[in-house]
Write a structure and sequence with these properties.
About 65% of the residues lie in helices and about 0% in strands. By secondary structure, the protein is mainly alpha-helical. The longest helix is centred in the first third of the chain and has 15 residues, at about 25-35.
Length: about 110
């Protein structure tokens, strides 16, 4: 049996980037990256419509989709919006690690 290489990114490593010196930048990138995983219908609706374990969950769908559209327009989060994003994004560390590993493998 072959040993599969360990992934470069883990959920724990992603969480460390959310607490490090570039946390704001990393969290903003993560929000936009997860938004791109939402279906086109979910992006158009501005929330979560499908229970597919991809992108944002139901309670976060509307707010994080709004943040992603805001960030995609070249702006940044600040104040209570930044604080809210920092709190919400942590639960998506596994998905973000998967995205990072897909990018490394490509």
């Amino acid at each position: 049996m072959k040993n599969r290489p360990q992934p470069a990114w883990t959920a724990a490593r992603v969480l460390r980037t959310f607490d490090g010196p570039n946390a704001d930048y990393n969290i903003e990138r993560a929000i936009v990256a997860l938004y791109t995983r939402q279906t086109a219908q979910e992006q158009a609706q501005g929330g979560t419509l499908h229970d597919n374990a991809i992108g944002f969950n139901g309670p976060d769908g509307g707010k994080l989709s709004y943040y992603a559209r805001w960030l995609s327009s070249g702006r940044h989060l600040d104040g209570k919006f930044k604080d809210d994003a920092h709190q919400r994004i942590r639960k998506y560390a596994r998905q973000i690690a998967d995205l990072a590993n897909e990018a490394v493998a490509a």
